[in-house]
Specification:
Elements lengths: L16 E5 L4 E5 L21 H18 L4 E2 H10 L4 H11 L1 E6 L6 E6 L7
């Protein structure tokens, strides 16, 4: 069971279960620990095959963003400013966010609200 996003609650952990037939019928058994995978990991890849340069750029952006967010939540505006200074576009940073399993959270409402980005506890495992 995967969290597919939303803005009313913090991200939920991914849960797993096993369906077993024990002779007297089917039983669903939930696994105790969350699974380190996000819904984005199940998204099909595009048909476009990347060349070596594009792959290297993706890996560089992913690594930069993972390192930048390793210290905890950062305001999204700071992520974009630092990322742009490091040579990445906002689009590259947005796509890298999904690839590394980072999350966007919002604190506050209306004009007082601020978006931040950070890593899931499980997204550090790569």
């Amino acid at each position: 069971m995967l969290d597919n996003g939303g803005n009313l609650a913090p991200p939920a952990p991914t849960l797993a279960y096993v369906i077993e037939d024990r002779g007297s019928g089917v039983k669903v058994e939930w696994i105790d620990e969350p699974v380190p995978i996000a819904a984005e990991a199940l998204r099909p890849e595009t048909a476009l095959v990347l060349d070596g340069k594009q792959t290297a750029e993706r890996l560089e952006c992913d690594g930069w963003l993972r390192t930048f967010l390793a210290g905890g939540l950062k305001p999204t505006i700071d992520v974009f400013k630092a990322g742009t200074a490091a040579g990445f576009t906002k689009d590259q940073l947005r796509r890298a966010k999904y690839r590394i399993g980072a999350v966007a959270t919002r604190d506050g409402f209306a004009e007082n609200g601020q978006w931040s980005r950070g890593l899931h506890a499980h997204s550090c495992i790569n």
